[in-house]
Design brief:
This protein has about 70 residues and is mostly helical. It is about 80% helix and about 0% strand.
């Protein structure tokens, strides 16, 4: 297995390791939401997710048809 230090060098590898440690700490802190959402908010977010997926599918379809 190739280490970060082997690819980028000691100094850059330690910087990247520090960044990943910081990001991991932030992700742990905010892993569980602290606010409560009403059912209306949950439904609205569900519709937004569905809308986003549909937009991505439409974009993929448009890209695919342009290639052909």
């Amino acid at each position: 297995m190739v280490s970060i230090e082997g690819v980028f060098g000691e100094r850059i590898g330690s910087v990247i390791r520090g960044w990943t440690a910081t990001i991991t700490g932030i992700n742990r802190k905010y892993a569980v939401p602290r606010i409560r959402m009403s059912p209306a908010v949950k439904i609205a977010l569900l519709f937004l997710r569905i809308y986003l997926v549909l937009l991505v599918v439409l974009l993929g379809y448009k890209f695919w048809t342009l290639l052909q």
